[in-house]
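User: Sorry, what's this?
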Amino acid sequence: MPTLTTDDGVRLHYEEAGSGTPIVFVHEFAGDARSWEPQVRYFSRRYRCIVYCARGYPPSDVPESHERYSQERARDDIRAVLDALKIERAHVVGLSMGANATLHFGLTYPQRALSLTFAGGGYGSPPATRAKFQQDARANAQAIRDKGMKPFADTYGHGPARVQLQKKDPRGFDEYLRQLAEHSVAGAANTMLGVQARRPSFYDMAAEIAKLQVPLLILAGDEDEPSIEASLMIKRRAPRAALALLPNSGHGINLEEPALFNQLLDDFLHQVEARP
């Protein structure tokens, strides 16, 4: 089982398939490396596809203290993946928690990114909902510690932006719930406390986003309310951003609509690569 080690000594499990220009896929809170299977199967025909499990997600290491989890650390773990695999620049594609890390990566290390894809990101950024999101993240962490992953998956996994997957792909939804329930209690709770509850708002980073020169694809489901507002704000400020809303779609858009997601991403990558 291949692993790499970050600069602060955490081992991350990774997998890769295909050859060519590298794409690094960064997963969401409720997923792991397996969540990107529809994309790896498609893009590995022409690209070198890399997926990895974030810290706290076995078989990656699960640091015991939530202080070893943060938005900055999630950002730098993407850099650690590139460094360990001797990749100078890559397309970076993130969903939700992974989208936030992806955009932070592009803002901090623009020279390492060929492009950025921000899908279903921005939860907790809008000022009107920020305090509630942070409160909920802390409550979710406690619920995970008190009750375990299976009861948490049965509630969190059926959220209003998750049921779209259930309606479209019942077998895929069952697989998603089963994989979520397999996650580490300590890792999930620490991720909630260290990353979700403490990450900065993109609204406070508007000036930085306005200076971003890396091509940026923003994707969101039109029924994923917590993502739409932040996605529009980022689109309006990032000078090289493109935006697409997927119809009748919720949060896990890469699993809900894999063909459309892949087409939008494929077209974007071709546009980036064709630009002098």
Summary: The CA atoms of residues 38 and 259 lie 8 Å apart. DSSP finds twelve helices and eight strands in the chain. The mean pLDDT is 97. The radius of gyration is 17 Å.
